[in-house]
UniProtKB/TrEMBL annotation:
Forms a complex with TatA. It comes from Lutibacter aestuarii. The gene is tatC. Part of the twin-arginine translocation (Tat) system that transports large folded proteins containing a characteristic twin-arginine motif in their signal peptide across membranes. HAMAP family: TatC (MF_00902). This is Sec-independent protein translocase protein TatC. It is found in: Cell membrane; Membrane. PANTHER family: SEC-INDEPENDENT PROTEIN TRANSLOCASE PROTEIN TATC, SEC-INDEPENDENT PROTEIN TRANSLOCASE PROTEIN TATC, CHLOROPLASTIC-RELATED. InterPro entries: TatC. The lineage of its organism: Bacteria, Pseudomonadati, Bacteroidota, Flavobacteriia, Flavobacteriales. Keywords: Cell membrane, Membrane, Protein transport, Translocation, Transmembrane, Transmembrane helix, Transport.
Length: 273
């Protein structure tokens, strides 16, 4: 995969180059985070707290599907818990970290661009020309994953955990930090999981995996996917299946991508032989 640069760089030169890529990426994240910080009402009331409301899009969609089949089993009227802040600086801390998370999500295409610029000197000229496609595809997968986490994983988790009770004597007063941590982990984890085809692309180019390897351990991957789905979703089988299906599809897509990459690498080796 690698191609020698026109000018050799020492290890410290690479470290210095990486440092500046990280600095620019961090600056982009913080710039967007400042904007998100100033949009407090919209970020929290319209986005973060929206899955708490019974009229959230996902709940309405499941309700319509349920009624289509002649039942209202998936319809909900309320999610019976309230938010509370128990520490003096908790709300300010939540505001800061939520803004940084929003900054990372929105600035993700720029972060990917900086990552590409760092690795591009070690690629072939034809591969360097694929920068635009790489950024678009990576960003698209990430944003689809974030939306999946927000509209599927988060409401499933909020609805299940918000209604779960071990006794009527226990009041459902949820720490605001706990709720936002759930929303944040669900969206970010889903966004990063949807980058699986991109990860497999680079692992194949590095010679660490092959399509045969992925097919051989498909059953093991299925088990890992189900475990992962169980970790990021409520402990009910329907939620786990809903989350597991797109991950399994991404795994199959990764096998196909790995096959194409390996075929191209072997063809290039034959041409250079």
């Amino acid at each position: 995969m690698a191609k020698k640069e026109e000018k050799d760089m020492s290890f410290l030169d690479h470290v210095e180059e990486l440092r500046w890529h990280l600095v620019r990426s961090t600056f982009a994240v913080m710039l967007v985070a400042i904007i998100a910080f100033l949009m407090k009402d919209f970020i929290f009331n319209k986005i973060i707290f929206a899955p708490k409301n019974a009229d959230f899009f996902t709940y309405q969609f499941f309700c319509k599907v349920s009624k289509f089949f002649g039942t209202d089993g998936l319809c909900i009227d309320d999610i019976p818990f309230t938010f509370q802040s128990l520490a003096m600086a908790e709300q300010f801390s939540v505001h800061i970290w939520t803004s940084i998370t929003a900054g990372f999500i929105i600035a993700f295409p720029f972060i990917i661009w900086e990552f590409w610029k760092f690795i591009s000197p070690g690629l072939y000229e034809k591969e360097r020309k694929g920068a635009k496609s790489f950024i678009i595809i990576s960003s698209f997968l990430f944003f689809i994953g974030v939306l999946f986490g927000y509209y599927v994983v988060t409401p499933l988790s909020v609805n299940f955990l918000g209604n779960y009770s071990i006794s009527d004597m226990v009041e459902r007063n949820i720490k605001i930090g706990s709720y936002i941590a759930l929303v944040r982990s669900s969206t970010l984890a889903s966004g990063l999981i949807f980058e699986l085809p991109i990860i497999m692309y680079f692992l194949t180019k590095m010679g660490l995996i092959t399509p045969e390897f992925l097919r051989k351990y498909r059953k093991h991957a299925l088990v890992l996917v189900l475990i992962l789905a169980a970790v990021i979703t409520p402990p009910d089988i329907i939620s786990q299946i809903i989350v597991a299906i797109p991950i399994l599809l991404l795994y199959e897509v990764s096998i196909y991508i790995s096959k194409i990459v390996l075929k191209r690498e072997r063809k290039r080796e034959q041409e250079n032989a």
